[in-house]
Amino acid sequence: MEISSEGCSPRNRSDHLRKDGSEHETPLQKQGLELELPDHGYGHNNNDDIIQSMNALDILKETVRILRFNSCSFMAIAVLLICPVSSVVLSNVLVDDSILKSLSIRLMLVAKASGLPLRPLIKQSCQRFAEMVISSATNFPLYVTLLLLSKAAVVYSVDCTYSRKKFEASKFCVIIRKFWRKIVSTYMWVCTIIVSCITMFFVFLILFCSALSVLGFSLDVAVYAAVMVGLVFSVIFANAIIICNIAIVISVLEDVSGAQAMLRSSILIKGQTHVGLLIFLGSTIGLAFVEGLFEHRVKTLSYGDGSSRMWEGPLLVIMYSFVVLIDSMMSAVFYFSCRSSTIETSDGEGNSILEKMAISADTVGAQ
């Protein structure tokens, strides 16, 4: 299905095709596929050719259409790359309980020293944060290899769909070998930003609660203040995650990486942050729901001899992997949506770097 591509923007409206006088059905339409793909690139100066940015629901619908069109490739990515990471993350098989308990106690002592009462909410928050930190540290090799590779593969598959090209593993291997360093470089920046945000939050929270304690405020006021600080931080942290997710997509599709990808991401999503927040909120709720089910149904609860874990565990791992896959796909579609709403000044600027690398891969294969 090697159809020539002129761009990688989101779906084109059928009425727009009719307005341009195009009456011929594409091979995708002949297959009865609902996915609407563009015939134009970013280089057009006509404002009618610029697709309007999509809201979160439109992005979800577009993601489902892409998944239906190229389901085999995405399911292979989920099974081979995402499921192994999901099984390790959900089971916490690499987390040492003694280290987890020690870190939880230290966090509780810090919270108590800063003036926060050790109520069940505070204790549970300290335990969850300690578990998150240790899990992230122990699973980092999986994140920087399989999970990062799965994100790149998802972005490449979405790019192939919009370019009307078939996903080819050989081309992807050639491309990923050339781009792997800059993708990892961007991921290191992502990790640095996330760690910096969390560190700044805890430093500010400790200083703020300590100041309230010195000024003589009650413990209840300190708890409410901590909750408010947490809510404000969650919004800031969500914005940082959105920028980081789009930066990963940019490092795959464009010839920038690291700090430049972060800057490009922050500029690209300007005015569309609310859409990214809804995507982040939906993905977070979905992942938290599956994690809660796994904690309750597999780790804690079992029927009789525990045979229920034999099928509930793998099922929840598959569900978790599917949510991760959809999240990665929506990030890629969100990138294309934001990019299509910007005006490009040159015809060649709209072509993704993957298209150029695919041409190079074809040349290498021909030789």
Mind describing the biggest β-sheet?
none
Task: Give helix and strand order, one letter per element, not per position.
Answer: HHHHHHHHHHHHH
- Total number of distinct structural domains: 1
Strand content: under 5%
Number of helices: 13
**Anisotropy-based shape:** globular
What does this structure look like?
The chain is mainly α. It has one domain. The chain is built from 13 helices and no strands. It has helices at 14-19, 27-30, 56-69, 71-91, 97-113, 120-138, 140-162, 169-214, 219-253, 258-268, 273-300, 309-340, 353-366. The radius of gyration is 23 Å and the shape is globular. The two termini are 22 Å apart. The model is unreliable at 1-51, 343-350 and 363-367 (pLDDT under 50). Residues 12-27 have a biased composition (Basic and acidic residues). It comes from Lupinus angustifolius (Narrow-leaved blue lupine).
Give the SSE map.
Layout: H1 14-19, H2 27-30, H3 56-69, H4 71-91, H5 97-113, H6 120-138, H7 140-162, H8 169-214, H9 219-253, H10 258-268, H11 273-300, H12 309-340, H13 353-366
Helix pairs in contact: 3-12, 4-7, 4-12, 5-6, 7-8, 7-9, 7-12, 8-9, 8-10, 8-13, 9-10, 9-11, 9-12, 11-12
